Amino acid sequence: MASARNGRRPRSRGAVAAGVAHPARRARVLMVGVMIVLSLFAAQLVRLQGLDAASVSAAALDGRLQVKAIPAARGSITDVDGDALAVSVERRRIVADPTLVVDYERREEGPDGTNEVVGEGYVAAAEVVAEVTGEDAADVLAKLTDPDEPRWTVLVADASPQEWQELRAEGVRGLAAEEVMRRDYPIGEAAAPLVGWVGAGELPAGGMELVRDEDLTGEPGEAVYEVGSSGEIISTGLSEEDPAVPGEDLRLTIDADLQWRAYDAVRTRVKEAGALSGYAAVMEVETGRLMALTSYPSFDPTDSTQEAEDMRNAAVEDVYEPGSTSKLITAAAALEEGIVEADSPIEVPTTMSRAGTRFRDSEQHPLQNLTFGGVLAKSSNMGTILYGEKLSDQQLYDWMRTFGIGDTTGLGLPGESAGLVPEPATWSATTRYTFMFGQGLSSTLLQQLGVFQTVANGGVRVPPSVIAGTVDEEGRYTEESVPEGTRVISEETASTLTEIMQGVPSTGGTAPLAAVPGHHVAGKTSTATRVDPDTGRYTGGVTSSFMGYAPADDPKYVVAVVIQRPTKISEYGGIIAGPVFSDIMRYTLQKEGVPPASTPPVEVELEYDPEDPDPDEPGATLDDNAIKDERTGG
């Protein structure tokens, strides 16, 4: 009754209170929610596996891929027979992540057959690296614990592939290796100035390394592969490689054995003579191809700690007053201009005056009755002036330039000097006379070598060359062409000079020590006063040299030797440089299989009889009155 009065209906048994969800309805709602979530997962799965499968897979693959550069081997530089002068060797640069190395445990098998920990961390890792590679363990440890390099450091800059494999077998986590190429030079300092070197940053410097860098440099390759989470290569994963293309090999005209022999001979003589330096060259007469070009002091092309000024090619960079070897040009000019013949008589006084200066020969002597040939063979300064002054200033200058003095040779080596031949308008009163016997101008070893090559080659000058050819990656050889020659003097003049110069390396000449037993040699000495670079005066010692060619009757090879500022033994070119010339020329002739001479050498009259009632007419072209004035001091 009360309920009815209050307007409320009585709650039936089993009814659910208002605001409380019915269990069945709640289940249906939950089911719907779950289905919605599952449908979203399904849709996403369909998208990933169906619509976006390729992009997702690619993204995952990208995360596993590593790209590694494959260095290209630099082309080798070889001698004329293919023996290596410079070669690239595959090496490894061992690097480390110290944060991984710190967990290393070194284990060894104990007496009971179990692996025991015998070392831990950086110390153990440093010991292993040192034992395998030969590095100092303390240095390796310092690199691993360097606070400035917490994640990456170079432990060994130059290790062999075998050393790296041994180190990997030790299981030191955090070590890796980078492939690098090291440049090796089998005959080292003997050819370093000519071959050059590869310096810091793999950049070429000096010599043929620099000159032919474009040909020697290869094209790097690239390797792409999959790695796992720990950095290991997945053997079944993607692996692609674009191989590197090596550079071309460069074959030089140099003979490695001869190069070393020449270097050793010059080095030995420089030390024996207490000299400043020395250089030597060997050239094929007909082709102008250099078989050896060396200098001492030299340098180690693999030592990166040296100063740049010590890593130079003195044989092509140094200029010096050539002295008496340059008399060959004056003699050739006088013959070509018709001033003298081989037997023209020339009276050479004790001293003589020109342009207010008194000239004399290197050794004092009484009045000499020499032929033109005798003047050249005995290297008389005064005799040279007596016939050379019949040439005008312009003729003297032009002949020097015609023989190549004052120009680079075209060899193309870095730093090659052109020398200095002053023009006549700049000459002092005495320059005209000193010019005739090789003072007052400067040249290089290669230029003087070229003078003798020209005469030996019958008067045809061929520029020097040092590149024989190239070999590409397929092994195909392409030969370098020989430069064309230029006729400078006649064959007759060249023959006359050759006959005269055979008297120089003889018992009666100025350089008997330059003789080569069993062979006829034509050559010339020089002992030229050096200019002191600090004072500009002729107080810098002397330049001693000998240059010549053999066999004299059919010249094949020309050799030049220059020793700068000797202070022991002697100063004269025949004594200082002559023996070095003999050694190098003898070795060259033997190595090339040139047989000994079968006929006696040509003899040239070096003196004449002043009482001869019928002297040769060419002598009349000389100024006899001027000579008489010199004898009387006029």
Description of the molecule:
The protein is α+β, with helices and mostly antiparallel strands and 634 residues long. 32% of the residues lie in helices and 21% in strands. It contains 22 helices and 25 strands. The strands form 8 sheets. Strands 2, 3, 6, 7, 12, 20 and 21 form a 7-stranded mixed sheet that branches. Strands 14-13-25-24-23 form a 5-stranded antiparallel sheet, with helices on both faces. The chain has a 3-stranded antiparallel sheet with strand order 1-10-11. A hairpin with a 5-residue loop joins strand 13 and strand 14. Helix 5 (121-133) packs across helix 6 (137-144) and helix 5 (121-133) packs antiparallel against helix 7 (161-169). The longest helix has 29 residues, at 23-51.
- Intertermini distance: 176 Å
Largest sheet: 7 strands, mixed
Task: Give average pLDDT, whole number.
Answer: 87
Helix content: 25-40%
> What proportion of the residues form beta strands (DSSP E)?
15-25%
Task: Please compute the radius of gyration using only Cα atoms.
Answer: 41 Å
How many helices?
A: 22
Shape: elongated
Total beta-strand segments = 25
- Low-confidence parts lasting 5 or more residues at pLDDT below 50? 1-5, 616-634
Secondary structure category: alpha+beta
Feature tags:
five-stranded antiparallel sheet; disordered N terminus; alpha+beta; 634 residues; elongated; 21% strand; disordered C terminus
What topology does this entry show?
Elements: H1 2-6, H2 23-51, H3 53-64, E1 65-70, E2 77-78, E3 84-96, H4 98-101, E4 105-109, E5 115-120, H5 121-133, H6 137-144, E6 153-159, H7 161-169, E7 175-184, H8 192-195, E8 197-198, E9 204-205, H9 207-211, H10 213-216, E10 221-226, E11 239-242, E12 249-252, H11 256-272, E13 277-284, E14 290-296, H12 314-317, H13 327-336, E15 345-348, E16 352-354, E17 357-359, E18 368-371, H14 372-377, H15 381-388, H16 393-402, H17 431-436, H18 445-456, E19 460-461, E20 467-471, E21 477-479, E22 486-487, H19 491-501, E23 522-529, E24 542-550, E25 557-564, H20 573-576, H21 578-591, H22 624-631
Parallel strand pairs: 2-12
Antiparallel strand pairs: 1-10, 2-3, 3-6, 3-7, 4-5, 8-9, 10-11, 12-20, 13-14, 13-25, 15-18, 16-17, 19-22, 20-21, 23-24, 24-25
